[in-house]
Every structure is written in structure tokens, then in C-alpha cells.
Amino acid sequence: MGWGSALLVLGLLLFVLPGKAAAFGAGNIPSIAQVEGHNWRHGDIEDMLKTVAFLHGKKWTTMMIGRVYFGNWLRDYSQAVDVGSLKGINAATIRIIVWVLSFMANGYATEEFEVTEERLGAYRPEEHIDNPLGYADGQDARQFDPRLRGPVDPRELEIDPRTGMKNYIANESGGWATSAGYLRWSFARSIHFGRVYTNGASGTSGKEADLCEALRCLGQALHCMEDFSAHSNYCELALVELGFRNVFPHCGSATQIHLNGRTVYPLVTGTFGAVDFLHSVLGEANDHFTQSEVDEIDIALKNAEQANKSTSGQRGFFGGTGSGGSDFVSLLGQLPGVGDGFASQARNLKAMSEAQEQENTRSAGNVNVVPGMSPNFDPVRVSGQIYPILEFRDKIVRSINNMISKIPGLESLLERISETLTAFILGLLAPFIRPIISQVSKALKEGSAGLIETSANQQLEPWTNPRCDNPTHSMLSKDHFTNILNSCAGRVAATVLQYVVP
Ligand SMILES: *[C@@H]1O[C@H](CO)[C@@H](O)[C@H](O)[C@H]1NC(C)=O
Ligand SMILES: *[C@@H]1O[C@H](CO)[C@@H](O)[C@H](O)[C@H]1NC(C)=O
């Protein structure tokens, strides 16, 4: 693919944006998170947005950036809701796990940051520009969740003679889901809510919730755009075009097409099969919804429980006596105005959590009942139980953030509260979440065993079959630092975004 068609692609991306996203001002865009590694995600991206104009030419605040990133982040984790995992665990349970992960990644977990089943959605290939070939092994995935996609139409996998890209990317004449369609939908929704916020009819404008929804939709659209360079062979094709003839285009040698009078390889993205699911979602030192990430929460929860139990005073806690838990409660009680209310809420939540812990211990005696996963395990009930904990925590953080600037002299108290808050909250969550985590890890590990062997051959097909234009996601994607084109794809994504946002 030449720069001519690169421009075409760019033009196409611009074309799918209705009415221009003027609502969000000019310049750079957050999070090429998908493309870059973990460190990048939390560092540079946020700095990048701060250099750019927000609504009415204001600056992006950390909170606004967080809201955009939340929308972006959710797309990654919607991959956990797919056929493979739904066979073992129901969607409501997956949502709880993702909710806790989100709390740890994004810092908030309620209101606009609540991971609802609706916001989480399910795995849809077009949201990541994934090649749907082989999706759900030919089964109709909608039997597991009506939001999943149906069987693949072979025409989706053909190359669009107009753009040289696979039809599922941006050919909208066939009635199948396309990434271009998803982008248009997300940006339109973002712009709609942004306009309601800025110019809504009398009484409807200025609502914070509308702004948050606009930012979340912006984030999910950006996720898809960032995947364009990260999940396709765009970088390879551009390199070939620049004269690096030895770059492998991830398509068989006989797949070249005629496009605008030139002979080029088609632009394709990777298929996302069982092995890729493992590669991307289950771990293998990967930065998505990894096994190890689930394990990490488990460890964090365990530590929080231990810390509560050990009575030796920890780093400079007030008084230095009693358990970490009650120290925290007494710290809270010192907050001016709101302290007493917070402290009594904390005590109530703690009592609730301890009751659950005892229930777990009781059922642990019975080997037939996995605690929390007994036949009468009800994810909806658990969500109801953890919501007040997360809500309590968000309330404290929001009021601390308000106080920091307004009431001088409280810095050291607020700092100590923030330091211990997470441990306290994790300790409260532990009895509810840990049983689920152990069950989910087991289901995921069982589900993945034996899959690697069977589809390993597919991974090498573009090398062995000259007619193959369906490379796999694992071979093609540049999501991870281990891929040499990772930073290249990241910079392409950033540049594309700079063109798109104004
Ligand atoms: C879209 O896909 C169909 C079916 O493969 C194809 O006939 C058509 O040429 C493609 N391109 C456009 C612009 O419709
Ligand atoms: C927290 O500490 C208290 C008092 O030391 C103890 O009774 C309780 O079981 C602990 N709670 C948890 C969740 O570990």
C-alpha cells in the first residue's frame, strides 16, 4: 500500500467523522494506550492531553483525562466477555471482576466510573478492527450473549477493491458490522452528549453526567482508532513502500492486488482465535486482562487482609495501637465536618465484610461448596454488597480532593488517609471478591488447557501458504513492547489522532 492509499485511509477515517468533533477543541488526543505498553499508558498519555485545549479552550483536568481513558480501558476489558469465558462464568460475575480491576486501574469505581454490564459490553471484533475469521469456531455466539456477533459472512473477509482493505474494516455496503461504522456511532454519541452538555435546551445543559458520557464514548472511539496501526499490517506496508523490501507484509506472496494502478499487498488485521485469546487476554506476560493481573488483585486483597490482622502499628499510624482498620477509622474521624459520618460508615462496612468472611469460613468446611460460588451464588447480590464499599471509597477520595486545596494545614492527615485508604478498602472487598477470583482463575485455566496445540499451525500460515491473507493477531499486533514496531505504531496512532480530532 502506498502513501496514496495511506492518505485514502486517512481520508476515509476523516470521512467517517460526522460534523467534526469541534466540541473537543483542537490538538492531541489521549491514550495511545492500546498501542503502547503499560508505563506509557499511565505516564505520557496524560501529559499529552494536558497540552491540548478542552471545551471552551480550557485545560484538560486529570479527572477529564481519566474519564476518557476509562472509555478506552473498558474496550480492552470487554474482551473478557466472550464465548470462551461465558462457557464457564456468567457475564454478571465477569463484570464484578472487571469492576474491581477498573477500580484499581482508574482510581474510581462508582457513578461515571461504574463498570455496568452495558458499558462493559462484550467482545465485538469491529471494536478492535479484528479479523472475524473463525470467530466462535463457526458457532452462533449469540446463544451465549445476544450482544456477541453472529456467524461470519465470507464476503466480510474479501478485500475491498476500492480501498485495498478487508471489507470488515470499512466497506459498509454489505450490511455487516464495520469498524468505520463503530467509530461513526461512538463519535456521534460523544458529540451528541457533548453538545447537550454545552448547548442543551433550557435546563438540560451543564449536566456533569452528559459530559462524562461524551468523554467515555470519545475514549472508546479512540481505542478503535489506535488499534488501526497496532492491529493491522499498516506499518509493514508503509515500510515496504518506503523501500524496505525485506519487511514481511503478513500476507502470503500471492495475495497482491491492483490498487489505483499499482500492485500492492492488501491491508489486513489479525484474526483473534483461541491462541490469540490466550496471548492477549489470559497472560503470557501480556498487559491485558491477564491471569497475572487477576492474581495480583488476589495478592493485594490477601495482603490487605493480613495487614488488618497484624496489630503491630504500621508506619506512623495514629496512636500506633490497635489494628490497621481501626487506625484508619480514627484517622477518618479527624476530618473536619464529614469525619464522624465517614467513620461510622466505615465501621458498618467493616462489620458487613467481617460477617461475609465468617460465612466464607463456614462454607469452606464443606468441600462440595466453593465459598461464594455455591449453587446459590448470586453475582447481582454481590454487586449490591460491594457497591456501598466502592461508593464509600469514592466519596472519601472526592472529598479529600476538594479539601486539599480549600483547607490548609490538613495535608499530612489527608496524605495518611489516602495512603491507608486503598488497603482498608481492599480488606473490605476481600471476603466478597477472593472466592470469585479463585473460581474464575480455575475456569480460565481449565478453559485454556489444550487449545495451544490445536491452533498453533494457524499462526504460521501467512509464511507457508502464499494465498493466505488472514494472519493471526498474535503475530501481527504491535500492542506490546516485544514487537519491534511497537513505538512506530504508537507514533502513527498519535499522528492519525492529531489529524482526526480537530
Ligand atoms: C464491498 O464489498 C462488496 C462485496 O465483497 C464488493 O462487491 C464491493 O466492491 C466492496 N466495495 C464497495 C465500495 O462497496
Ligand atoms: C480485621 O481486624 C479485626 C480486629 O483485629 C479482626 O477481628 C477481623 O477479623 C479483621 N478483618 C478481616 C477482614 O480480616
TrEMBL record:
<dbReference type="InterPro" id="IPR010816">
    <property type="entry name" value="Het-C"/>
</dbReference>
<protein>
    <submittedName>
        <fullName>Heterokaryon incompatibility Het-C</fullName>
    </submittedName>
</protein>
<dbReference type="Pfam" id="PF07217">
    <property type="entry name" value="Het-C"/>
</dbReference>
<keyword id="KW-0732">Signal</keyword>
<dbReference type="InterPro" id="IPR052577">
    <property type="entry name" value="VWA7"/>
</dbReference>
<feature type="signal peptide">
    <location>
        <begin position="1"/>
        <end position="23"/>
    </location>
</feature>
